Amino acid sequence: MQKQKNVSLILDDGSKFSGISFGYERPTAGEVVFNTAMSGYPESLTDPSYSGQIMVLTYPLIGNYGVPARSFSGKLSTFLESEKIHADGIIVSDYSENYSHWNATESLGEWLKQEKITGITGIDTRELTKLLREKGSMKGKIVFSDENEIDFIDPNKINQVARVSTTEIITYGNGKKRIVLVDCGVKHNIIRCLLKRDVTVIRVPWDYDFNAIEYDGLFISNGPGDPDTCGITVKHIREAMKKEKPIFGICMGNQLLAKAGGANTYKLKYGHRSHNQPVRLVGTEKCFITSQNHGFAVDNNTLSDEWTPLFVNMNDGTNEGIQHKNKPFFSVQFHPEAASGPTDTEFLFDRFIEMI
Ligand SMILES: NC(=O)CC[C@H](N)C(=O)O
């Protein structure tokens, strides 16, 4: 049997938790955030929006269904949300090295080791989450011997989007309608959802001036870190708004579209990361269960008269989407592409394509 290494999780308020390493043996630091979904660790770990973050899973049993193949279907991952793991570490309560699933090809621990990502088990993730709920998301580090092995890092002070966005233009599909996709750290299921609707997707880097491209619709993706790091993207979106072609944004895309419209964003205490976030369509009693992963939010009070909130979070009343009152621009804070999570709001992709 392999020797189990004891490791410590240290938070910047001085709290310390002891656990056992089950991934790559490397100290790591980042923002410690919790996710209350019961499944979906392969998708969440490869979601670029987790760049700079150490993910705590509250569901206790993790690893029991293994990890799918890291294969590609054309230019997209067959089962995952990007080419690699983007989270900077994972914290679980009860890691299961034994796995069973028709689609699994390796264990979570094996995958973490290959991708050099730290994983720790044996932590009371419910106690840890209670702390993060009381004090808010905190900086944290996982160390193997000495507490000073690595410094705390505030990932929101670093341009995470520049770390994960494509550096070249990539084209997918050959449908008649041409969508420019601004890649702030796009999840592959967003591209799959667009391609299912028979369009051409032109994926461009986050800071690329796409206004020179001929397109029918503009899509702004999800992405990691503080939306304030994407000033150049906001400038390009503001320019694009003059063309009055349809614009759809998801998560970071909601925040950047709001900023282009003159509104502000702020950091939530501990964010929304789960599969069961209830949102209400403003002006109706209709509620949807959504998949979410964000730490920042649009401040409704700063929306100009031209914009209106589109969805509202039923748990805390925060903004979950915006819509322009007379132009075809809208965006949502949650993930209609799911992956993982419920697909109740996938119809929003149809709405975008119909607008074109
Ligand atoms: N998934 C996302 O696009 C997240 C957006 C932003 N990084 C936030 O945390 O709010």
From TrEMBL:
Coiled coil: none annotated. Residues 1-177 are annotated as: CPSase. It is an enzyme of class 6 (ligase). It catalyses: hydrogencarbonate + L-glutamine + 2 ATP + H2O = carbamoyl phosphate + L-glutamate + 2 ADP + phosphate + 2 H(+); L-glutamine + H2O = L-glutamate + NH4(+). Pathway: Amino-acid biosynthesis; L-arginine biosynthesis; carbamoyl phosphate from bicarbonate: step 1/1; Pyrimidine metabolism; UMP biosynthesis via de novo pathway; (S)-dihydroorotate from bicarbonate: step 1/3. Small subunit of the glutamine-dependent carbamoyl phosphate synthetase (CPSase). CPSase catalyzes the formation of carbamoyl phosphate from the ammonia moiety of glutamine, carbonate, and phosphate donated by ATP, constituting the first step of 2 biosynthetic pathways, one leading to arginine and/or urea and the other to pyrimidine nucleotides. The small subunit (glutamine amidotransferase) binds and cleaves glutamine to supply the large subunit with the substrate ammonia. Belongs to the CarA family. This is Carbamoyl phosphate synthase small chain. It comes from Coprobacter fastidiosus NSB1 = JCM 33896. The lineage of its organism: Bacteria, Pseudomonadati, Bacteroidota, Bacteroidia, Bacteroidales.
